[in-house]
Amino acid sequence: MKIKAALIAMILLLWLIPRNEAFCMSVNADGSWSKTITTSNLTSGAGSNLTSTYESSTNQANVDISLTLGILDSWKVNVHKVDGTWHSDVHLYIRRSSDGWTDLGLGTISGGSSYIEVTGVAQTFFTGSGNRYDADVQLKLTGISLSIPAGTYSTTVYLTLVDTF
Amino acid sequence: MVCSIMQVSAYAAMSDTISVSFTIDPINEINIAGTSVTLTVNAAVAGSQPTQVSQSTTYSISTNCTANSKKLTAVINSAMPSGITLSLNVTAPTGASSTGTTTITNVAADVVTGIDAVAQSDIAMTFYLNATAAAGVVSAASKTLTFTLVDA
Fold first, then answer.
1. Do B31 and A29 make contact, defined as CB atoms within 8 angstroms?
2. Is residue B38 part of a domain?
3. Which whole-number Å values give the CA distances from A63 to A24, A94, A101, in the listed order?
């Protein structure tokens, strides 16, 4: 009985107290966004330009942070993009549109609820602690116009989890 | 047991990706203001051919074509009667060139060339109708003009 209690206490302790093993955490992002812009996106027919800004649905993608060592195990998610074919007039923004949920309602999440521009340089998107599931992500494109030749443009948004201990 | 679980998690992903793409379709839209233009030649200066008449309207254009890759042509659905000439002068949108006053027949004629990506409205275009005395009295007739944005 004492051995069992001690084992349970040890597991709880490992769950509650962060350790310095950065390698445990995992980030998983599900979702993608593909937007098609047509004649129907002219602001007022012939003679007008294209609507310049497009937003995805609020749950276009979602992010899980898992395998943390407990609710005190803090982390941050950085974001940057690597362009395939892209156009320099077009800017991509990202925001966190929900908090998602946690184990037992514990843990924290903050930041990232306002749009930030995603560039080629990593920057902090949001921070938190403990496991986090289904934090929704919304995306926005700006700078669309008729000056951009017809074609398909793509980029890959990287969400990188950093253990901040 | 706990240690073995933690060993497995050492290989967990530290980054993941979201793919974002957008596609812009070819956009080539033009619109002529109004639906009809009426031209009536009914006067002349003694000793001269009947007096030319004209009427102006405007058009609007939106295109995302590459530089100098489009032109505007104009054509009517059937030939004009003998001795009657329909002409059109189309002001070019920014970056393009007008061919000036151009006779319009039932064979497509260029009226603007060298069109770039542009969004511009209310651009002037003027129709002219000329008749020779030899044409005589011609009953009213209608023609359908087709104004087309095509590859240069």
1. no
2. yes
3. 17, 13, 11
- For residue B43, give its domain range: 27-151
Q: Please give the helix or strand (H or E) that residue A91 lies within, else none.
A: strand A91-96
Does residue B77 sit within a domain? yes
Q: Which residue out of A49, A64, A87 would a mutagenesis test of the B interface target, given it has the greatest number of B Cβ atoms within 10 Å?
A: A49
Per-residue pLDDT tens over the stretch A62-85: 999 999 999 999 999 999 999 999
Stated pTM of the model: 0.84
Which chain B positions have a beta carbon within 8 Å of A160's beta carbon? 14-15
A126: which 2 tokens?
């949001």
Give the best residue of A12, A60, A67 to mutate against chain B (max B CB count within 10 A).
Answer: A67
- Is A36 close to B63, i.e. CB distance below 8 A? no
Assigned domain for B140 exists: yes
What is the predicted ipTM?
0.86
Q: How far apart are CA B140 and CA A45, in angstroms?
A: 33
Which residues pair with residue B150 across a beta bridge?
B71
- Residue A155: what residue type? T
Number of compact structural domains in chain B? 1
- pLDDT one digit per residue (tens) for chain B, 152 residues: 343 344 334 445 699 999 999 999 999 999 999 889 999 999 999 999 999 999 999 999 999 999 999 999 999 999 999 999 999 999 999 999 999 999 999 999 999 999 999 999 999 999 999 999 999 999 999 999 999 999 99
Q: Is there a contact between B83 and B134 (Cβ–Cβ < 8 Å)?
A: yes
Q: Is B1 inside a domain boundary? A: no
| C-alpha separations of B100 from B14, B51, B68 in Å | 64, 20, 18
Task: Count CB neighbours of A14 within 10 A.
Answer: 16
| CATH at residue B142 | 2.60.40
